[in-house]
Amino acid sequence: MTHRLLLPALVLCLGAEAQAQTGGAPARPTSQVIAITGGTVFPVSGPRIERGTVLIRDGRIVEVGASVAVPAGAQVINAAGKWVTPGLFNASTQLGLSEAGSPQFSGGYNDTRAKGTNGVAAAFKAWEGINPASTFIVPARQGGVTTVLVHPSGGLVSGQAAVINLTGDNVDSMLVRRGAGRGTAPVAMIASFSNDAAQAGARGELLGKLRDLLLDAKLYGQNRAAYDRNASRALAAPRADLEALQAVVDTTLPLAIEVNRASDIRAVLALTQRDRLPLKLIIVGAAEGWQVARELAAAKVSVMVGAMSNIPSSFEALGTRQENAALLRAAGVSVVLIGNGPGDSENFNVMNIRQEAGNAVAYGMSWDDALRAITLSPAEAFGLADKVGSLRAGREANVVIWDGDPFEFSTRAEQVFIRGVKQGGKSRQDELTERYKP
Amino acid sequence: MRSAILAVTALALCTQAGAAVSPLLAQAPAAKPATDTAKKATVAPPGAGALSVPNADPFPSTYAARPTRATVIRNVSIFTAAGPMIRNGAVLLRDGKIVAVGATVDAPAGAVVIDGTGKYVTPGLIDTHSHLGVYPAPGTAAHSDGNEATAPVTAHVWAEHSVWPQDPQFPRDLMGGVTTLQVLPGSANLIGGRSVVLKVVPSRSVQGMKFPGAKYGLKMACGENPKRVYAQRGPSTRMGNVAGYRAAWIQAEQYRRKWDKWLVDKQGEAPSRDLGMETLAEVLRGNILVHNHCYQADEMMQMIDIAREFGYQIRSFHHGVEAYKVADVLAKEGISGSLWADWGGFKMEALDGVRANIGLVHVAGARAIVHSDDPSGSQRLNQEAAKALAAAREAGLRISDEDAITWITRNPAWALGLDDRIGTIEPGKNADVVLWSGNPLSVYTRAEKVWIDGAVYFDRADATQRWRTDFELGYVPANDGRIR
Question: Which residue among A231, A323, B104, B349 is least enclosed by CB atoms within 10 Å?
Fold first, then answer.
């Protein structure tokens, strides 16, 4: 794969970062300083800066502003006339988990779904199966996406999602963690409000299963000793899944649940209120979210929605409309834009997240909110705002220099930096195109 | 994953077809038979049935154009799809036709005059690959009517008989500036049946949407889908696929000869009718256009040889993710490419999809078309064209904005055999016109007004006139587009 060419630079960068994390290690003599100067800078965490400078040292952003002193010896990149943004964050992908369609027929791989137990696969760490050599990664990065959430699918509880930066050949080093040490890779537990997925016959049964599962996870957490003595009643899931759900019931890990009908969204919100099950909820899909926008805002849940859907494609999504994202935002909801346009938005077309943002603007969202919805808002929703999603001191230096408005089709991501390393390399598509180009 | 892929999963839902056919519904052509053979034939009286005549039209269009008012759009940028963009120009629509276009036009007394300052005009957009109505929304098994996946050759089925005119996807397509659609059977079968060309207009019946005088299309499919669907009974291989096409055409050629002879000499009893063979014979007579789902370059080359063997033309390869590899051949053979801007990688035969595909086909001199095969993509053909244009330029190809507009207007009109009526802004063409809020190649632009045959069918500013299907009443909240 062509992006192996990048490895030497990456190794340097990660080496520096590892030192920074362990603390106390002296700065390397090879310490790399990059100054991106003269462009219109969109930090997202603050107002735009005309002719601003983004200063990067050893893979991190150290300073952003209109009057940043560029240290001697810094590599200066002139971005005059360009737009400088954080790397885009696509919060709904399956990059590295699936390629070439059905494994049975095409021989490709599909590592998105665990078998689980009765529709529950909470222990499934989907990211462990990521293939960093996926041919979909380079095109996504070329399109300005530096960071993606990789989620499992299927079942009532699909498993755990993680966030990766799109560079490198080792999943461990690609992960953007919620802190240091063990257990910091998962950023959300993924679930789906679907009778079929939950192996339930009716909505009431589905809600009961979800409630029982979460209550049993609590019970298990409070009675591990009894469980180990075999002195516990039967619980709703195997031990590994109950363990994995501890972070959900203690509200350190968000439960991101795909749910579309307005009344179903209310039922999920009621789990935390009426059933006194504290949860950090993220609502995914939310086709009819605009109908319950005020409740979502009051509950302070993030909502992940597309901006290119207006088709009542199922009886759960009859209220689907393109103004959904804007209406939710107007009600005060933190909106994360995800792909639901034509084509394969989770693999081949991960870079089309900027098209979603443009469509959100066309249907009523402010431009600044739309940029936020594909950078800082997902970072906040998944507890990673101190790492990615904005151009702010201390953040990983994921930066894109565009030759125009990033949402416009005619605009190119001219330079893409991940953890301060300029990305390059040809995609498989590039090689095919060059072979047949006149 | 969407319709191309969903269409395949939907196959499992298809039940055994009702075998009954109704030969009595056949009707002789009203007039103007298109072949010499037919001209010589003595045509049976209407309603007599049982005659396999060329151009028979048993389900005639009942589309009636709405009353129109002469309309002038002025101070507007016009992508005519027939030449360079006219900046600050004007266009006159009258009696359903485009009457004049240029820097200025004479506005007749009483004409509606629209100021298009800052706005753009294009021809109505045309999608050569749609399953609206046959895979309607909401997606249900009860309405999954796009693939008659009961035999590898089902030339006897007609997509129009599956079209549900109350599919809420139709009005949404209109809001995207789409005025003409080809609705095709799915790709489960080697020969899937007849397509139908529709105007995107409200109607109680599919007949009321049918584009008057449009030729039918024939859906054929290469590659993975047929061999997977029929793995148990065959074909289960690509060589089985090819043998299947050839066997069908051998039979069709025999059928055509027998009928064309009888239509001339009327000797003895008329040969027995066969609905499938009738359709294939019409392809061989040149009256039905072939639309061939085919991903791989090598398979397209084989399909071209099969067409040559039996003496028919392929009008358009659909999907063609590898069309760029044989773009010169498509140009030489006069075959258009109905292609996606950015679909690939989702199955083995789609692995070599590249975003420069449409641009590469265009610069080779073949007719490039942005198609959708997807109810979401169909609403945004302009955005899809813009993506394909950007990818082509990124690959170093020199293509103008005007060229990209032909991918969603003039070229698909040709693929449907309607380029003499729609697809450009030129005097004499049907007044199928879209007024855009800005450059249609911008992500921020929306269709503001859509005219079909000179009548306004969509006006974003007037929510009271918004087309809502019967299905939507009481199920789908009315949407005036406001953010509040």
Answer: A231
Cα dihedral across residues B81, B84, B87, B90: positive or negative = negative
Structural domains in chain A, CATH included, are 1-86+390-424 (2.30.40.10), 88-388 (3.20.20.140)
Q: Which residue has the higher pLDDT, A186 or B484?
A: A186
Beta bridge partners of B369: B338
Residues in contact with B18: Cβ distance below 8 Å, sequence separation at least 6, in sequence order: none
Give, for B338, the enclosing helix (H) or strand (E). strand B336-339
CB-closest option in B138, B324, B354 to A315: B138
A271: left (phi over 0), alpha (psi -120 to 50) or beta: alpha
Give the amino acid at A72: A
Contact B363 A311 (CB under 8 A): no
Rounded Cα distance, A328 and A334, in Å: 8
Q: Please report where in the chains the tokens 């009258």 appear, as a residue.
A: B94
Q: Which of B:177-206 have CB within 8 Å of A?
A: none
Distance CA B148, CA B159 (A): 10
Specify if B476 maps to a domain.
Answer: no
Q: Which two tokens stand for residue B10?
A: 């939907």
Instruction: Tell me if A352 and B389 make a contact (CB, 8 A cut-off).
Output: no
Residues A66, A362: Cα–Cα separation, whole Å: 30
Provide, as residue numbers in chain A, all residues whose Cβ is less than 8 Å from the Cβ of B387: 352, 355, 409
What CA–CA distance (Å, rounded) separates B409 from B418? 11
The residue of A310, A402, A405 whose CB has the most chain B CBs within 10 angstroms, and thus the best one to mutate to test that interface, is A310
Which stretch of DSSP H or E encloses residue A104? helix A103-106
Record: contact B345-A344, CB cut-off 8 A: yes
pLDDT in tens, A382-434: 999 999 999 999 999 999 999 999 999 999 999 999 999 999 999 999 999 99
For B106-161, what is each residue's pLDDT tens digit? 999 999 999 999 999 999 999 999 999 999 999 999 999 999 999 999 999 999 99
Question: B409 and B421 in contact (C-beta within 8 Å)?
Answer: no
Which B residues, 428 through 457, put their C-beta within 8 Å of a C-beta on chain A? Answer: 441-446
pLDDT at B8: 36
pLDDT at B484: 64
Judged against a pLDDT cut of 50, whether residue A87 lies above it is answered with yes
Residue partners of B354: CB distance under 8 A and separation at least 6: A429, A432, A433, B321, B324, B344, B360, B391
pLDDT, one tens digit per residue, over B312-330 is 999 999 999 999 999 999 9
Is 0.80 surpassed by the pTM of this model?
yes
- Total domain count for chain B? 1
Q: Which two tokens stand for residue A233?
A: 């009643």
The DSSP 8-state label assigned to residue B312 in this structure reads -
3-state secondary structure at position A53: strand
Interface confidence, given as ipTM, is 0.92
| pLDDT 10s digits, A228-261 | 999 999 999 999 999 999 999 999 999 999 999 9
DSSP letter (8 states) at residue B292: E
Sign, Cα dihedral of B243, B245, B248, B254: negative
Integer angstrom CA distances of residue A407 from A81, A361, A413, B318: 16, 9, 11, 29
Within 10 angstroms of residue A152's Cβ, the number of other Cβ atoms is: 26
CB–CB of B151/B189 below 8 Å?
yes
A101 touches chain B (CB under 8 A): yes
CATH number of the domain bearing residue B265: 3.20.20.140
Distance from the Cα of B307 to chain A's closest Cα (Å) equals 25
The residue range of the domain holding B193 is 3-9+125-423
pLDDT for residue B428: 98
* Mean pLDDT along residues B89-118: 97
Distance of CA A71 to the CA centre of its chain: 34
- Is there a domain that residue B444 lies in? no
